[in-house]
Sequence to fold (366 residues):
Amino acid sequence: MKSVIAGQRTPWLYDENGYLNWDNIYNVEELMELDTPINFFFIVGARGTGKTYGALKWMLDNGRCFFYGRRTQNEAQVSLSDEMGEFSKISRDNPDNPDYLIRFQDIPKADGFKLMYHVGSDGENVGNRVGIGGPMMSMQKIRGYNCSDISDIFYDEFIPEKHVRRIRDEGDGIKNAYETINRNRELAGEPPVRLTLAANANTIDNDVLISWKLCNIVGRMQAEKREVYAIPERHIVIIQPFYSPIAEKKKETALYQACGEDSFSEMALGNKFADADMSFIHSRNLAEYKPLLSIGELNIYKHKSSNRYYATPHRSGNPPTYATTAVGIRSLQQRWLWLQSYYLDGLIDCETLASQMLFEKFFNIK
Fold:
């Protein structure tokens, strides 16, 4: 077994050039001696470390037919273009290999979606199909399209930057998109589609991590500097490359020398969530508190003998419980919005960074 030790680099996670090693990532079951297959990969990593480029190149090298998803139609349009997309860079870096030359065709009546093909033997017309690309949240546009040959989904930039418009219920949208492609193939004895999601560490309280109930694990990995965490019973692996050799080299480049040790550099190179604020983080004795409410991975308690509160991932009792949907959050706020002022007055402690960020999200503090 290849061990994963908190606070240390995981050697098998990187290739000889320091980029992410996708051969090993997709062989994680053997490397970590897991008894169940991993079908869902969440990669939250520093910028330029080989997340998108490396994954797409691996798909092409291994003859996978895949869906390449982006958050919006505009993002998909750029990514699926001959001149500006990620595939064009892979092709330019490997000019002698025609397998990296990809062409795109619009799917009729499905704006933003394109079929992806290898270039034909004549260098002009299309050859074998590589897959489909498009905006992940608009999968209903191709719901009747045959996706039975697709073995992988790669969803890029699933954590938006702070200034980018949020998509309502994005986490559930990914699940619906997966269902559209995967369908009932497992019931027919076929392997399930493999889903890989990649992003930079922009914000931990994003809708995808909330919907998949991964915020607390991701936050714990941040605190421990643990690069790989497997949840075999859920067929999930989370990867956060805290010790990327590429990120270390980029510290000496012009931009990061100009930035110094600011929050952007910590996100882009150190894989630290850009909006992390540790001032509210305190560990309290849960026995001194009684449960007040629960929403997703966030549980709030009130102190039994004082007017203080505690936000924690630990749940007990049977308090009022709310869904993390837009309606659930609205219902929570209608009854409990007064907790917002208690938080701002410093009367609410948070056990973990994830608890703090979830509280701020659900109570409109950001």
Summary: The mean pLDDT is 89. The first helix runs from residue 22 to 25. The two ends are 43 Å apart (CA to CA). DSSP finds 14 helices and 14 strands in the chain.
